[in-house]
Amino acid sequence: MPPLGPLRYSRSILRGYVSELERLGILGRVRARASPALEILLSAPARADKWIDARLFHEMMAATFALCGRDAVRGLGYRVMRAELGAVLEPIIGLALSVLGRNPASLFSHAGQMAGVVSQGAEVTWAKGVDGTGTLQIRVEDPQPPLSWAPWEGVFVRALELAGHEGKVGETRAARDGRSATIEVSWVVR
Question: Lower Cβ count inside 10 Å, N or C end of the chain?
């Protein structure tokens, strides 16, 4: 497999996370726990570099988890996809669904390209299962902490909604080496 390089996320993801932490009322408490590098990003996200090392996002997720639990971390991925990334990705998603049909499998089969708009160093692939099921796999170069996969689950919940389907996004199963994870997805076939 070709090397992917370091995992980095876009400034737009950072802006979305900061907005959601504010909305949750915990931004100040996350900043109080932050390293100097993360504190700078949280206080001035618009001035951040275009691409940000994933380790700073992991630190933010760990603080969110400590304050609010795992569901809040998963919810960050969902709400950022819904609010901040919607302006960037939803037109692309809408076009894909109109061409390929309003089927989540069609959307998930293009998850890698969509992830590439807001992340670097991550490979996302889709394996279709029986009707209304499948598995998303995320692969990265460097080991990631287990909690780092939870926001991806929220992103895929939003993708199901955009495809117009009710369904379930399972909890991530990370590989022992922390370099990949799988997420089972299912939906009601219409």
Answer: N
The stretch 52-61 carries a mean pLDDT of 96
Question: Which of 156, 153, 179, 155 is closest to 54 using CA atoms?
Answer: 179
Q: What is the pLDDT of residues 31-48, one digit of tens each?
A: 999 999 999 999 999 999
pLDDT attached to residue 90: 66
Q: Which domains does the chain have, with CATH numbers?
A: 1-190 (3.90.1520.10)
Closest by alpha carbon to 161, among 94, 113, 98? 94
**How far is CA 109 from its chain centroid?**
16
Structure tokens at 153: 């689950």
Contact 4, 138 (CB under 8 A): no
Q: Which residue has the higher pLDDT, 84 or 114?
A: 114
b/e code 39-77 from CB counts within 10 Å (16+ = b): eebbeebeebeebbbbbbbbbbbbbbbeebeeebbbbbb
Whether 96 shows a pLDDT value over 70: the answer reads no
Model-level pTM? 0.89
- pLDDT recorded at residue 100: 64
Write the single-letter amino acid at 18.
Answer: V
Do residues 116 and 139 lie in contact, with contact meaning Cβ atoms separated by under 8 Å? Answer: no
